[in-house]
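Lecture 7, part B: from sequences to assemblies.

Below are the input chains for today's worked example.
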Amino acid sequence: MSKNSTIITLKKVQKIYQIGEIEVPALLDINLNIRRGEYLAIMGPSGSGKSTLMNLIGCLDTVTSGEYWLEDEDVSKLTDNELAQIRNHRIGFIFQTFNLLPRANAFRNVELPLIYAGTTPGKRREKAISVLESVGLGDRVNHKPSELSGGQRQRVAIARALVNDPSIILADEPTGNLDSTTGEEILHLFEELHKQGNTMIVVTHEETVASRAARVVRLFDGKIVSDTRNDSNSQTDKSSTTDILARVKRKNIPEAG
Amino acid sequence: MKTILWDTIEAGRIAFGALTANKARSALATLGIVIGVMTVVLMITIVSGLNDSFSTQLARIGSGTIYIQRFPWIIQDDFFIYRNRPRLTQKNYEDVKRYCQGASTITPYVDTMRPVAFKNESLGGVFLIGTDETYLETTDVMPEVGRFISRMDAIANRDVAVIGTTVAKELFGQHNPIGQKVRIGGFDYKIVGVLEEQGAMFGQSMDSQVIVPIGSMRKHFGRRRDLSIIVKAINPDEVEELKDELTGIMRRTRRLGPGEGDNFSINEQGQLMDMYTQITSGVYAAGIIIGGISLIVGGIGIMNIMLVSVTERTHEIGIRKALGARRSQILRQFLIESALICSFGGIIGIGLAWGGAKAINIYLPTSMSVPLAVAGMLFAAFVGVFFGIFPAAKAARLDPIVALRKE
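Predicted structure of the full complex, as structure tokens:
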């Protein structure tokens, strides 16, 4: 598969929730193509359908109608177990609240997707430790989440997302529970991952986060209202970065405990 | 296959972690299993101990030996029916001896209780048996020192006695009783032998007895004593035929008409065994039912605690599902957890039953067998799996999105 091939295709995707007698449309007629190696931000206010879209892309949920092609597979037609396998092999999740297992140490958390993939213990150890080292946590392998800072926790979660070499990395408000400096570190790490050739999809409602992506898709009321490319390379745009930091700081988001 | 192995090991680890994190809760949840396994295992141990000791004791009677007596060994209806029966007489014995074809040995037998004294030592409640030399053949007793009563002793109604080991020990201590004179119920008897130690039978010591010639017993303690006739079959496999033959002889010697019922009883070991099995199977069934009920109650307790556990760990289940855990993997995780709790309860229950069996062992020979312990463990684990199915299925069916949202 060539480097610039399409990795995700959404065709006329609809998602309608049935709440009692009432049908609540969450996504209406979504058409979206994402190429391998893209860095995409999905933006929108709460209720715009971005979480629903993320759940669909992440194979946590299935479409009501339309098609979802992940690489060469029509995911909308898969069974529960096949979806689990796709989540395990092809998708790396990064959550706002990290979603680490509290009783397990960093290594055990990172190892988890490999267990469900049926990897042998020796290989699991090797891979989990090498990926923890790559996110700068080589010395925190045996620490439990409660013994780590917010930024370190999110790095564990990133390591866990990367450990099975997924096709896409799907991050849901990855800096939402972090202070601005730590958030910046995480976003920097995302850029590194993107440079290494990973397909990054970040769901966020923060302009500062979205502006780091190469492409921004905006949702409103379950529809895509804009799909733009950031021309300026934000990584090198120093003024923009400080501006972002200032704005994030003003919001003064507390760190998750 | 490999995947199943790894995530089963993983499930075991998770389960173990969850159990140790909630030690008190797990221990309380498994209490019902502890009691259930303990009851069943202990009951089986006791009953099999009883069975063993009973059949060892019964074996002493011998399967080819028949007792013709006034009373049956098992009295099922009114005792007064039997009380009005005439005693067995010397004539009955002589007729049986004269006509019976299927018997190898026929022994007359009377017994009573009398005190036995030697010098200043006295021993009460001694079982006094009057018989003849054939008693050696119809029963298993053997003299250890000296000799048994002889044919001549019996014919001549000599006042000689063979004593049991308890009597020897109590009255003579370390001294040799052979040749000494003891007073039995006021009459002097010369000791000619000491019997081998026989232990107890149905709770009664067989060593606190004295055997004398039947004629001597009649002479001193009454001629009209109730007689028993012990008959040993030539062929132990033809006991039934022998019983029929003996019934016929007895009816004739007692001149019973065609319409009259037997006024004597033909007793043998088999009847006791039948009755015994009947009683113990009742005890057995009761134990199993009680244990079974507490296992069911225990299982419901486990189901409850597993449901709590699933609810508490909904978020964790969501994470695992998001990371690619399949339904079967989540199911397995929780099944292993509940099987582990129950096995733990099973181990404790078996431990308690083992201790109980040890304590009872003072009164009754009981020993817990290894297969029984293993079966108890496996059954506890099975209860865990069975009652874990519902909570585990609930966990496996959780929608990952809903589960993730729950904190």
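Note for the exam: The CA atoms of residues 218 and 226 of chain A lie 5 Å apart. Keep this in mind when comparing with the next example.
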